[in-house]
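Q: Sequence in, structure out?
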Amino acid sequence: MGLFSKVTKGAVGKKAIDEGRKPENQRKIKGLVAKARGRGTKPTR
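A: Exactly. Output:
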C-alpha cells in the first residue's frame, strides 16, 4: 500500500508542476497569491 501511495503522490506532484508552467496558470496563481496577501489576517492569541 505504501508504494502505491508514493507513486500516486509523485504523479500528482508532476501534474501540478507541469500545469504550473503554463503561462495562463501562472497568471491565475499569481492573482490568488496577491489576493491572499491582500486580505491581511489578524494574529490570533
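The mean pLDDT is 85.
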